[in-house]
Design a protein that fits this description.
Rossmann fold; binds pyrazine-2-carboxylic acid; 198 residues; alpha/beta; 6 strands; 19% strand; binds zinc ion
Length: 198
C-alpha cells in the first residue's frame, strides 16, 4: 500500500492538549516533541484533519476523587484542556470533543467506553469519502489505541504512526503488537513525510 497521502486519507490528532504535555497533571513524557512531526504531517494533502480534545466535566468519573484512575485533567473550558500551542492548527478542519458525559469515560474518538454513545466521527469520515486513517498523538496506550481499534472496526484502513505518538503506562512495542493483531498497520511519520516529499 502506497504511503502517498491523498484526499481519501484522514489524519486523526489525538488529545494534543496542555494537560497531557510534560509538566501537566497527566503529562506524557516526550509529548511536547510530537509537533515537530505532526505539524509537517498537517501540510500533506489529507482529505480531512481532525484534532480531538479530552473534554471532561468537573467531577468526571475518571478522576481519582471520584474513584477513577486519573488525576484531574482536561476539565472543559480550562487552559489545560486547550490544544497545545505548539500544534499548528491551520489545516485542522474538525475539532472533536470526547469524554463529556460525567459518568462514562471515552478513550476512543469514535465512541464512549460503554460502546453506547458514538461521537459521529465514523459518519463524518465516511461522508467525506475517507478510506484510510492515520492516527497520531497521546496517549498511545489509551486514546490512540482505542481510536485505532475502533477505526478498524468501522472499516477504515488504519495506520498508527509510532514515532508521532507517546504513551503513559505500557511499552510501545506491547501496544503496537496488540494493535497489529487487530488489524492496525504501522508507518513511521518520518517515512510518510519523506515519501510524500519525493
Ligand atoms: C487519556 C487518560 C485519560 C488519553 C485521556 O488521551 O489517552 N488518557 N484521559
Ligand atoms: Zn481523560
Amino acid at each position: 500500500m502506497s504511503l502517498r497521502i491523498n484526499a481519501t486519507d484522514a489524519l486523526l490528532i489525538i488529545d494534543m492538549q496542555a494537560d497531557f504535555m510534560p509538566g501537566g497533571p497527566l503529562g506524557v513524557p516526550g509529548a511536547d516533541r510530537l509537533p515537530t512531526l505532526i505539524n509537517p504531517l498537517c501540510d500533506l494533502p489529507f482529505g480531512v484533519i481532525v484534532a480531538t480534545q479530552d473534554w471532561h466535566p468537573a467531577g468526571h468519573i475518571s478522576f481519582v476523587g471520584q474513584g477513577g484512575p486519573w488525576p484531574v485533567h482536561c476539565v472543559a473550558g480550562t487552559p489545560g484542556a486547550g490544544l497545545s500551542p505548539a500544534l499548528a492548527q491551520t489545516h485542522v478542519g474538525v475539532v472533536l470533543r470526547k469524554g463529556l458525559h460525567p459518568d462514562i469515560d471515552s478513550y476512543s474518538a469514535f465512541e464512549d467506553n460503554d460502546h453506547v454513545s458514538r461521537t459521529g466521527l465514523d459518519g463524518l469520515l465516511k461522508g467525506r469519502g475517507i478510506i484510510r486513517v492515520f492516527v497520531v498523538g497521546v496517549a498511545l496506550d489509551y486514546c490512540v489505541a482505542a481510536t485505532a481499534r475502533d477505526a478498524v472496526r468501522a472499516g477504515f484502513a488504519t495506520f498508527v504512526l509510532p514515532d508521532a505518538c507517546r504513551g503513559v503506562r505500557q511499552t510501545p512495542a506491547s501496544v503496537l503488537d496488540a494493535l497489529g493483531m487487530e488489524g492496525v498497520s504501522q508507518a513511521d511519520a518520518v517515512d510518510v513525510l519523506s515519501y510524500n516529499r519525493k
